[in-house]
Amino acid sequence: AASAPELAFFKDLRPPAGDFRADVLDGLSKPQKAIAPKYFYDAQGSRIFDAITRAPEYYITRTELALLDQTGPELRALAGPGAVVLEPGAGSSVKVRKLIDALDNPAAYVGMDISGEHVKAACADIASDHQDMVIGAVCHDFTRPIDLDALPLPPGRRIVFFPGSTIGNFELIDAKALLQTFRDWLRPGDALLIGVDLRKDAAILEAAYDDAGGATAAFNYNLVARINAELDGTIDPEGLAYKAFWNPYRSRVEMYLQALRDQSFTVAGRSFQLRAEETIHTENSHKFTPDIFRDLARSAGLAPKHVFLAPAEAFSIHWLER
Ligand code: AVI
């Protein structure tokens, strides 16, 4: 693996640590206790997420990768030469390699992620394989504002790449706002290439979000470990069970940590109680139909130009333009 000096730039816009504390205390004070899923992704959580993507039940990653392989020539034609690829929530950047390899002389790639070390290493790896491109990395929470003009981006058609169906982790109103944010990153004619998971059988969905190997459960327990370590918490992970279920009315998989018994704990000096069976909501993963997603995109000011569908409509990748 190459090291960071090969990056054209690294910008650390790390969100203040106080955000985590305030958000956790606020979330645990609600009638339905909840913690925002972005806090899953510390360095260890990002590693566990990579393990989830390799779990046999978690069809999303391999389905999207296969779809990207198949759509390469069409993506190359849609994008044209010299594209500047921006990837919010880049993580380990496996998918973008397929996009970069498909494109016609892409000019630049910028990976952005809330996990700074993770994104820096992943982008440095890409830089060592693509010395002809401008490769940068940014530590950034993409739900917060960013001034793209402050990044040394070369000219060229911008493609914001947002794979993985991460859009599904947002409440619909927030998903719309996020699409509007990405739209603001684009100039007329630029594009958003976004992976969107589709509705399917409940049993497939529930298995994908509660794999037998326990990676998804470990992902949730890591959040507890993170709260205990960083916010001086006393939550006993053994008092909590991980649960995932498909909610057909809201078209989403919902994930929770559920109390196995009455318990109390402290976080950052504040006390909290959990009754037996009470839950902490950790995540939603919304599933769409192609039409419902296109409507959402239009409502955010993006024009659907093309959709690529995996076999059996297991997954979709949408090309949207400003
Ligand atoms: C990142 N995101 C799209 C994942 C998903 O499928 O909703 C997060 C995840 N949570 C548990 N498993 C995967």
Walkthrough of the structure:
- Its EC number is 2.1.1.44.
- This protein is an alpha/beta fold.
- 36% of the residues lie in helices and 26% in strands.
- The chain is built from nine helices and 14 strands.
- It has helices spanning 17-28, 43-54, 59-79, 94-102, 116-129, 172-185, 202-208, 215-230, 290-299, and strands spanning 9-12, 33-34, 84-88, 108-113, 134-139, 158-162, 191-197, 240-247, 252-259, 263-267, 270-274, 279-286, 303-309, 315-321.
- The chain has an eight-stranded mixed beta sheet, sandwiched between helices. Strands 2-12-9-8 form a four-stranded mixed beta sheet.
- Helix 5 (116-129) links the parallel strand 4 and strand 5.
- Helix 2 runs antiparallel to helix 8 and helix 3 packs parallel to helix 4 (94-102).
- The longest helix has 21 residues, at 59-79.
- The protein is globular and about 60 Å long.
- The two termini are 36 Å apart.
For the sheet with most strands, the description reads:
8 strands, mixed
What class, by secondary structure content?
alpha/beta
Q: Largest sheet, order of strands side by side?
A: 1-5-4-3-6-7-14-13
Taken from the alpha-carbon principal axes, the silhouette is: globular
Number of helices: 9
Which key terms come to mind for this protein?
322 residues, alpha/beta, eight-stranded mixed sheet, four-stranded mixed sheet, 9 helices, 14 strands, 36% helix, 26% strand, binds N,N-dimethyl-L-histidine
